[in-house]
Design goal:
Layout (H helix, E strand, L loop, with lengths): L3 H9 L2 H9 L3 E4 L6 E4 L3 E4 L9 H10 L2 E4 L3 H9 L8 H12 L3 E8 L2 E11 L2 E9 L4 H15 L4 E5 L3 H4 L4 E4 H12 L6
Parallel strand pairs: 7-8
Antiparallel strand pairs: 1-2, 3-8, 3-9, 4-5, 5-6, 6-7
Helix pairs in contact: 4-5
Length: 200
């Protein structure tokens, strides 16, 4: 029998409720021990400005060597599973099932890196109007996740998205121009993003 907390958690994982929570700037993570899914709304947020990102010259040079193929939305679930395939992950099976329901509504998208016909990396995120909430990325070969991120940045710019939320700062993201902002400024960015009707 489900506990009361599990019932509440399941209610938050219904597609409509998930979208409402994402729209406020919150995002879910599963506890690695208990499996409980909590929603987070940090005071400091990390974004990559879509009109002011950076592509390191050395990264461009390295990526060109691999001759990757970039695809969009051909293997969304496999990308999510690839992101979850690590020793410690916040992407639980319950969360994957919830993501599948959002995929059916057209609110989760993947940018995939392929090499010699095989999926070797990528990223996924949730879209709501002019906002893309980046969730996770992974690589099976060097530079694969960076190639996907570069493709995402240009794709969002071309399609007039206003916000790329990447949650937390990492050295990987800092290379691409990621910055940290306060929650009030972040919410202002959300309002601007929601004034746009964008198609991924």
């Amino acid at each position: 029998m489900s506990s009361k907390n599990e019932e509440i958690s399941d209610e938050f994982l219904k597609p409509g409720n998930m979208l409402r929570l994402y729209a406020t700037g919150a995002f879910p993570m599963a506890d690695q021990e208990s499996g409980a899914i909590e929603w987070y709304l940090p005071e400091t947020r990390c974004i990559i400005p879509i009109n002011n990102f950076n592509i390191p010259r050395s990264t461009k040079k390295e990526i060109r060597k691999f001759n990757f193929e970039i695809r969009v939305d051909t293997e969304i679930v496999e990308v999510i599973k690839g992101c979850a395939d690590r020793k410690q992950t916040w992407i639980s099976e319950r969360l994957i099932e919830a993501y599948k329901r959002l995929i059916k509504r057209g609110h989760i998208h993947s940018v995939e890196t392929w090499k010699d016909g095989k999926l070797v990396g990528g990223l996924y995120g949730v879209t709501f109007r002019g906002a893309f909430f980046g969730e996770s990325m992974y690589s099976k070969v060097p530079q694969a996740s960076k190639a996907a991120l570069i493709a995402l940045l240009f794709h969002l710019k071309e399609n007039d998205f206003a916000l790329l939320d990447v949650q937390y700062m990492t050295e990987h993201l800092k290379m691409f121009g990621a910055i940290e902002i306060g929650l009030d400024e972040y919410k202002t960015n959300l309002v601007e993003a929601y004034q746009r009707v964008c198609t991924f």
